[in-house]
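Run log, item B.
One chain of 158 residues. Sequence copied directly from the ordering sheet:
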Amino acid sequence: MTIAIGERFPDVTLKTPGPDGPEELRTGAFLAGRRVVLFALPGAFTPGCSNTHMPGFVVNADKLLARGIDAIACLAVNDAFVMGAWQKDQNAQAMTMLADGNAELTHALGMENDRSASGMGLRSKRFAMILDDGVVTWLGIDEQGVDQSSAESVLARL
């Protein structure tokens, strides 16, 4: 079942790139008392994610933060090493990179996207959400391309 507006975000432990390697990040603590934009994508270094989805958030990070967002988080079914390398490659230092290597959070959100036919295995659907103190207040899910989950779509909801 897909998470919905008004529901609390699952409290799970993920990995995030740190200065000395992967670090644990508890989503409940990360979201507590904050207004957060979280966007998810199928995979780091993939064409649509690298050329369209992530760049929109990099370019618009200051606008999002100026509209009362405390943090911007990027979620993908990749490991923390890949997420760290992609963060550097994309100039995405303003983002908190969330590595869901085993797709546990993706599954808990009901956002699985089986891309086994193309050799990519289980990935995340492309989506974005606004969270207030861990509660979903807006959710945009893309069936194709980057539209509902774009930084511009998020900005239009703030």
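Observations after the first pass:
- The chain has a mean pLDDT of 92.
- Residues 35 and 132 are 5 Å apart (CA to CA).
Flagged for discussion on Thursday.
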